[in-house]
Write a structure and sequence with these properties.
The chain has 344 residues and is α/β, with parallel strands linked by helices. It folds into two domains: 173 residues, Response regulator (Rossmann fold); 156 residues, Rossmann fold. 45% of the residues lie in helices and 18% in strands. It is elongated. This is ABC transporter substrate-binding protein PnrA-like domain-containing protein. It comes from Granulosicoccus antarcticus IMCC3135. InterPro entries: ABC_transpt-TYRBP-like (IPR007487).
């Protein structure tokens, strides 16, 4: 009986081919150019909305200041610890062979599986983008590493939405549960490292500042997300997290499902999830990439890593989905609705 090839070995073979192709391409570019080399390592794969936005901002900021080699760790589709470790090792081997002037990374898994084991306190400058909330678990800050920490606008999001929910709690007659002083909140998202960190922050903030707890449904596949969204309608507020990493996701089926079942207020901090949410208080992916790119240019121009402090993102966009709001029958603050960007 034929034996299946180990998926890790297949994955390792693919990374070796990718590195060989990248080296061949870079060799031809560098032979024709005296420009410095920037290596960009993404935690995920091309085609994901957030990481594509980060890379777009990065490339715009770098312009023609350096040649850019890219490596995609693809850790949302290959989520076993051994696979992610192999992805980090493959990225390191590429960096070792290319000897870039600056390494730029995006999101948590590149920090966990590349920066922490291989790059901390080395001679190569590293700029990260999109590490969620804290960097200490990745051995940072370090002498050769700086970056932009990604934080979601949770406080403004909860302040605005819970204010709406509190009025609803006063006016509604509940058939499923008794009147309460605090709102019931559910976080529905993918079961990934970034979203687990987000849940921890949500719970801390909701408890400390608003006297509420946050329940969660973190899923690996689309079927469970659909079921989770139905369960979410029993709550007063649904926070829609990320769909990245959810197997078999179908945009059109999800949108129809949400339109048919939305009965309670939903809010997201991801622009691409506005298709499934009434409100959004969202981060801007391009901000992360732009900052990382400008920092990399400053390093290429001779600035020291120690002169570029770690910062957090600041830009926030407010959104409303008018069609979903209309279908839901929810009544929201007119001032908030009028000032928000419209998602159609």
């Amino acid at each position: 009986m034929p034996r299946a090839v180990n998926s890790n070995l297949q994955r390792r073979f693919w990374w070796q081919i990718s590195i060989a192709l990248a080296l061949a391409l870079l060799a031809s570019l560098l032979n024709a150019s005296s420009s410095p080399l920037c290596l960009y390592v993404s935690s995920y794969n091309q085609g994901e909305t957030w990481s594509d936005g980060v890379e777009r901002g990065l490339r715009d900021a770098l312009g023609h200041r350096c040649e850019i080699a890219s490596f995609y760790m693809d850790t949302h589709r290959y989520r076993q610890i051994e696979e992610m470790q192999q992805a980090g090792l493959a990225a390191y081997e590429l960096a070792r062979d290319l000897q870039p002037d600056v390494i730029i990374t995006s999101d948590d898994n590149a920090a966990k599986y590349l920066i922490l084991p291989y790059l901390v306190d080395t001679s190569t400058p590293v700029v990260f983008a999109g590490i969620n909330w804290t960097v200490r678990e990745y051995g940072l800050p370090a002498s050769n590493v700086t970056g932009m920490v990604e934080v979601a606008p949770l406080k403004s999001m909860l302040s605005n939405t819970l204010n709406t929910v509190s009025h609803s709690l006063e006016e509604r007659t509940f058939t499923q549960y008794k009147m309460r002083d605090e709102a019931r909140i559910l976080f529905l998202s993918s079961n990934t490292l970034s979203e687990r960190k987000m849940l921890f922050r949500l719970n801390s903030l909701a408890s400390r500042s608003f006297g509420s707890n946050v329940d969660s449904i973190l899923v690996d596949d689309f079927k469970n997300w659909l079921a989770g969204f139905k369960v979410a309608q029993r709550y007063d507020l649904v926070i829609i997290g990320n769909n990245t990493g959810i197997r078999d996701w179908d945009d059109n089926v999800a949108e129809l499902h949400v339109r048919s079942h939305t009965k309670t207020l939903s809010v997201t901090f991801n622009t691409w999830m506005m298709r499934y949410s009434v409100l959004g208080f969202t981060r801007v992916a391009e901000e992360q990439g732009e900052w990382a790119g400008l920092s990399a240019v400053a390093l290429l121009d001779g600035l020291s890593v120690s002169d570029i402090p770690v910062v957090t993102n600041r830009r926030v966009e407010t959104w409303v989905n008018p069609k979903l709001l209309s279908n839901s029958g929810l009544q929201l603050n007119p001032r908030l609705i009028n000032s928000a960007r419209k998602y159609y």
